[in-house]
Amino acid sequence: MKKTAVVLLFILSITLFAAAQQDKSKRPSPPAQAQCKLPDGKTITTDYSSPRAKGRQIFGGLVPYNEVWRTGANEATTFVTTANLSVEGKDVPAGSYTIFTVPAQDKWTLIINKKTGEWGIPYHYESDELVRVPMQVSKTSGPVENFTINYDQSGGCTLQISWENTQASVKFSEK
Fold this sequence. Notes:
By secondary structure, the protein is mainly β. The protein has one helix spanning 2-22, and strands at 31-37, 43-49, 77-81, 85-87, 90-92, 95-103, 108-113, 129-152, 157-174.
């Protein structure tokens, strides 16, 4: 009887530990989502993990310049569009993708990749890239503690990535 109780307690402990590991909201970089609704009801949805700055130097420190970055934390950031899009004159058909960026001090590059479901690093998916496009970079009006992706919906869907004191953006248009 005592052995059975110990075994059951052990199994319950493992089950609870596994359940806690599955609760992504308890991660140091919790999940977040940004969405842009197009006039015809179609959408662009971006799911990502939102790390915190915690007093660290982010760009040029934690996130090195001129290297592919998973654009968030944990799993690769997903980009799902139900509409055919155009970005910087390049086509992005409706579908599911991952996005990566290459931050630099004065310019960024957005990578939209056809491969999905990966962890995010290391990046070795060049052969699966759909497009690479330049992003506009500006300073934020104040420090941004939580890494954030959002969409400015005035005149289309402008993807905005903000963290520390930097914002990078690029506009998507429906085709």
